Amino acid sequence: MTALLDLSGLRKSYGALVVADAIDLSVSAGEAVGIIGPNGAGKSTLFNLISGDVRPDAGTVRLDGEDITHLPPHARARRGIGRSYQIPLPFARMSVYENLLVGARHAGRGRVADPARHCGAILERTGLLDAADRPAGRLTLLDRKRLELARALATAPRLLLLDEIAGGLTDAEAHALVETIAAVRASADVAIVWIEHVLHALLPAIGRLVVLDFGRVLAEGAPQEVMAREAVRAVYLGVEDPV
Amino acid sequence: MRPVDVIVQGVLVGGLYTLFATGLSLIFGVMRLVNLAHGDLIVLGAYMGIVTTQALGLSPFASLLVVVPAMAALGYALQRLLLNRTLGDDPLPPLLVTFGLSIVIQNALLEGFTADDRKLAIGSLATRSLALPGGIAVGWFPLIVLACAIAVIAGLQALLYRTAWGAALRATSDDPVTVRLMGVDQRHMYAMAMAVALAVCGVAGVLLACWTNVDPGAGPQRLLYGFEAVIIGGLGSLWGTLAGGLILGIAQAVGAAIDPAFQILAGHLAFLLVLLIAPRGLLPRMAA
After folding, report:
1. Which chain B residues are closer than 8 Å to A135 by Cβ?
2. pLDDT (tens digit, 9 = 90+) per residue, A130-159?
3. Entry's PROSITE patterns (chain A) (predicted)?
4. Residue A197 DSSP symbol
5. Minimal Cα distance from B168: which residue of A?
6. CB–CB of A194/A167 below 8 Å?
7. Using one digit for the tens of pLDDT, what is the confidence trace for B100-154?
8. Packing angle of the helix pair B60-81, B186-211 (nearest 10 deg)
9. Contacts of A74 in chain B (CB under 8 A)
């Protein structure tokens, strides 16, 4: 069986700075993979390479066996790659509902039968139903984070890339957001790749953990087992207590 | 002339100015691009109308069926092949490229059609008028132009705020990078916006040539009127552009009633006055 996402030999450097150094990574349909690593380890670059914001110097990106290495971001979105940014960037002058509708109607074309109902269901699930008609630029941070997730879900992704979605939230808020993500996974066949610094939010929600350091995969495996490794503890020492 | 009559005539010519301004307003609103060739593209539309009526024997209004799609196609190609490459953080390249385009269009028209001025004949429609109570006569043709302007603004407004395409265009205007994650190709959206803008230029050009004489050098003044209407109304607001066009028309009519030599200067003075009172225009788009 081909993997949903397959990265092989991905390499990207900016001058002497290597941000992705021969990365190999596969994600199966419906899987949840967490990605951690110190600042500058190449986590966001990895997402940029998958979503198409950045083209690799070498290597390939495959979605369902199809080589998408040279496709622009909008074409990848239409094939089912959804993404949330670390810093929420809503379409500020549009309503929350309209923010979702754009993705449902364009990226989701073919997968979303009824965009209005699809968006309504996502608004309800992400707790944004009451804010549906408000301009997205006037939301609180928590609601902006929810919108960032909701907007990515509106594209009906098969692969969802979450970039530090729990960052900047209180524990209770982060917990609620994680529960929403768990509910989404339970109801839709969507694979998740999740970058997160907030480990207590991340670890229970994922099936596999990947540690990046200096653009390379340092460790990969079951979350608790990976976190126990000496090399990982060394990288994380002073950053966050993994236990 | 009596005051009411002056204002009515001003509103009518304001319809034409609104059509000059609509494409500029749309393009600036969507991609922050100031198209210095806009006036020359209107004149190009006028010449397309002249050629079409002569070659195919169509009436000026029927020529719109050819001119509007042709201008739209030109707009799509122009944006996709040339102007998209100039967009970025630096506002200078689009200004320089469209300024160059303006010179190219003017000289190409001069080469193809000489410097003689031309006009589209609309027969008896040019002189027929509607008698309003109070002894005011309103020309049918200017009335049609005003109706066109209102229809174009209302149509664009509906396109932007009532359709999926419009939502994608507004999202592109808001954030051209993030919109790609929603499956929208921002280069295509920009090209579509320019296609719509030039389609309106085609309408404006044909109606301009029906209204008055045009020559290859007539573009820059139309750009200036269009620009003033956009600024008076407020950047990025289509209804504001209509208001701006009408105010400019009225100001010119009032100026002309005082002294015919004062007509154009009065329009510019009204523009300055609005800038003094409301620097962001009368109906600026809401800040987020």
Report:
1. 288
2. 999 999 999 998 899 999 999 999 999 999
3. ABC_TRANSPORTER_2
4. S
5. A102
6. no
7. 999 999 999 999 999 999 999 988 888 899 888 878 889 999 999 999 999 999 9
8. 150
9. 179-186
* Sole residue written with tokens 């393009």: B27
For residue B174, which residues of chain A lie inside 8 Å, CB to CB? 91-94
Condensed to tens digits (0 to 9), the pLDDT of residues B212-247 reads 999 999 999 999 999 999 999 998 889 999 999 999
B178, B182, B286 member nearest A106 (Cβ): B182
Residue of B nearest to A88 (CA): B178
Test the B interface: residue of A54, A83, A91 with most B CBs within 10 Å: A91
- pLDDT tier at B286, thresholds 50, 70, 90: low
The backbone torsions φ and ψ at residue A21, rounded to the nearest 5 degrees and listed phi first, read -120, 90
Domains of chain A: 5-236 (3.40.50.300)
- Compute the count of residue pairs across chains A and B with CB atoms less than 8 Å apart: 85
Neighboring chain B residues of A91 at a CB cutoff of 8 Å:
170-171, 174-175, 178-179
Are A92 and B171 in contact (CB < 8 Å)?
Answer: no
Which pLDDT score, from 0 to 100, does residue A34 have? Answer: 95
B246 token code pair = 């009408």
Kindly list the structural domains of chain B, giving each domain's residue range(s) and its CATH number in brackets, ordered by start: 3-120+140-277 (1.10.3470)
- For residue A80, what pLDDT is reported? 95
Residues A187 and A184: their CA atoms lie apart, in Å, by 5
Residues of A with CB under 8 A from a CB of B: 51-53, 72-75, 77-78, 82-83, 85, 89, 91-94, 98-99, 101-103, 105-109, 115, 135, 137-138, 151-152, 154-155
Q: Return the pLDDT at B147.
A: 97
DSSP B219-266: HHHHHHHHHHHHHHH-TT-HHHHHHHHHHHHHHHHHHHHH-GGGHHHH
Residue B288's pLDDT band (boundaries 50, 70, 90)?
A: very low
Nearest to B181 among A51, A94, A137 (CB): A51
